[in-house]
Fold this sequence. Notes:
By secondary structure, this protein is an alpha/beta fold. It has helices spanning 24-33, 103-118; strands spanning 15-19, 39-43, 56-60, 78-82, 94-98.
Amino acid sequence: MMRQDADPTSPPGLRILVVDQVTDTEEVLRAVLEPRGVAVDRINMADMPGATPPTVLVIDNDTPARCPDTAGWSAVPQVIIGRVPIADTEDANHCVLSKPFQYAELIQKIEDMIARRVA
């Protein structure tokens, strides 16, 4: 997919990393955010330890046992998507979306986190 001209109001170097086994969320975020100058990448949980920390991390996680260790990335804003409630993860840098969710809600949370991060 060719990237369109970046949104001049977006700071350079913004990157969303989607940790998911399937491509649906990545494809929607690419379609919406890449034209605005925000790069979107996807990896599997097994590949996460070697990944470069992004601007915002989106984790699709259906069971707490599968949740990757993001302790080293505590400063990275995170959106966790799942069917299983995760206790004590909601704060300014971490939010949880329960499945089923609307992509508009996910995009809004990502945009809010980016705005706080670059402010």
